[in-house]
Amino acid sequence: MSGIVWISSYPKSGNTWFRAFVANMTNTGAKEFDINNLGSGWMIKELVSSHYGYDVADLTAEELDNLLPDLYEQIARVEKNTQYIKTHDAYLTLPDGRPLIPNFRSRVLHIVRNPLDVAVSFAHHRGSSIDSTIEVMNNNNIGLNLETDRYSPQLRQRFLSWSAHVASWLDVKALPVLVIRYEDMQLRPLEIFSLAARFVGLSDDQRAIENAIRLSDFKELRKHEQAAAFHEKPEALSNFFREGRIGGWRNALTSKQVSQIVNDHQIVMRHCGYLSVDNKLIY
Amino acid sequence: MNYFYQIYGVQIMSALRFPGIPEENTRTVEASISIGAVPLTLPDRFAHGYKFQIADERFLLAIDNIARFYIVNGREIIIAPEAVAEETDIALFVLSSVMPVLLQQRGQLVLHGAAFEYNGRGIMVCGPPGCGKTTLMAALAQNGYKILTSGFGIVDCSAKAQPLIMPGYPYLKLWRYSLTMLDLDNAGFERLRNGLERYLLPLGDKYYAKPLVLDKIYFIDNVVAANVGIDNIEQKEAAMLLIGNSYRYNFFASEAMEYGHRKLCDRVVDRVSLRKINKQRRKLSLQELLAVLEGDLNR
Questions:
Q1: I want to staple A88 with a disulfide (CB 3.0 to 4.6 A). Which of A96, A157, B39, B213 is the partner?
Q2: Alpha-carbon gap, residue A188 to A126, rounded angstroms
Q3: Do the bridges between strand B58-63 and strand B52-55 make them parallel or antiparallel, or are there none, so unpaired?
Q4: CB distance B197–A148 less than 8 Å?
Q5: What interface predicted TM-score (ipTM) does this complex get?
Q6: B259-279 confidence digits (pLDDT tens)
Q7: Residue A97 sits in a domain of what CATH number?
Q8: B175 with B132, same domain?
Q9: pTM of the predicted structure, to 2 decimals
Q10: At CB < 8 Å, which residues of chain B contact A?
């Protein structure tokens, strides 16, 4: 299979975990697993400059966005092997109507996680309070590298709110999207990773999948992080892989914070199975 | 009307005016920039990207809403402007994205680097875009040093003796955030382009306008080390770092071009002291970076 597989999620929802699984599935054994060389990452501006042949630092963010659909299509067209690209963008449309991610030879694996657990993990990741993180998760103008007053090597990522982010991917009709839940990845790993592996064009050999699941286990990733600093970890953070368990929010959120998150995101939470019809929290 | 400039040591006659670069009195012409017909494609191209094509010593580049550029034999740049383009924007892209190609065609080593004068010799700092080279140059200028170039550094290896670092533009391109770090108010500076929070900081008498013997190259690296500091580099790693910091390595699209580029890198490895600034995977503050750099130079 060739083309692009987008590994998409709101932050702190299992994106790196799945990328580690892909790295272990595609590792032929010639090299040891390297947490800093997962073979899938962000698109960076320097790569855009290399493809286009000029310095995109001289472009505005909007001009740069306009280059991306054609570039992604070109990558999908010419690369012989599947390109796995991480994104925290919502499914976005440019002002001229083109989707940021074109449908040509592209597919999206989207991972959703309970926003109650996301809030705890994301607050830790941001190094800020849970209350401010709850506000951020309900804000459509939040993302990464959105500052226009400085150069960031990475492209900007526009999350939108947690609800708008997830809903944008659930609504995509133009290209194949498989939505999986973080909780199912933990509770039914073989079934869910097998499903995802088939979708993204990896081997469906059960032993290989079982092995890759084991090697990408949270404890294993923590061990790798302790052995070699993880390049994607924010500077101020002591460790990227922290807890990762389902329902950790029960020991971390106040009832007021839970109510706020549920109030902000109840429609999408219900749709994704995090909230029952009679408003009971499921995980 | 034509304008005459010296850019990275090349005498240029240009139909396009470059604001911020002083005009030269000399009428010697080593390369020209003109407005004219540019081919849509290079039928004999042997490499291409999404918006560029390469055939021997010819390079075709298209920038949407700006212009198409044809760079030939290191001696000629022909520009076909797009109707909507501002002349200042065309000039900006010539300086930032077209000149490096012309210089590569002229056999110069083009690196992601910046350089300043220290005791009559050139000191270069290399690192990927966004690592803080230009902000460091601005801070060095504030500390009294003279700056030769930033953004990309041109190393002339044509002489048998030590390679030379060439002077570039007499200004720095700084983002508003960097100006703030340097206690400078952006209101006093000209924007690079409309809509972009990047400004031109004229170097004035802090610009060093002559080539200098290249004494040292420091690479801003992200290796994990016990301490923030400066290390020597093994020869093999040095060659890899030079290649890694080369401007658009994918432009060396034939074996001959790649071989020629590697020979230039080898020459620098043989003759220039190469050092590595360890950052411990974190962004050093500007003052930390200045302190380790000046500390090493003054040893």
A1: A157
A2: 29
A3: antiparallel
A4: yes
A5: 0.90
A6: 999 999 999 999 999 998 876
A7: 3.40.50.300
A8: yes
A9: 0.90
A10: 49-52, 61, 63-65, 92-93, 96-98, 128-130, 175-178, 180, 192-193, 195-198, 222, 224, 248, 250-251, 281-283
